[in-house]
Structure prediction request, 130 residues.
Amino acid sequence: MSSKLQAITDQAALTLKALVREGEKDILKAWAACLEEAEVQEQNPKLRLTFTITLDLGKDQAAHELTFGIRHRLSNVTPIPDPDQTLLPLEGATDKTTVTIKTPQGSATAPLGVMKAAVAKLRKGKPSAN
Prediction:
């Protein structure tokens, strides 16, 4: 490693320790909040600590930043749409709407709300008890 990069990493290590000490109370509060949020959401708790080094080469300066907290992210993974596969419209669905699944072994009918809840559990990786 070059002597310049070694000096930058040595300074960054010292700065990281100092920033953690300085923000210890807030980091621990975020830690506790993360555990509570994960329990409510029934998810694995993850607290992200991000340490960034930004080198301003024009000013010959290194800026160090420590960020932490619960990151909220909304995302969705969907199959790639197949234009030849038609989707069933559910715009007019009500509490009385049912879904029937037919297989060679038989069929099963359930209220739409029950089906949606079962699908949501499956998406979270939790098998349905029914």
User: Anything to note?
Assistant: Residues 96-130 form one domain.
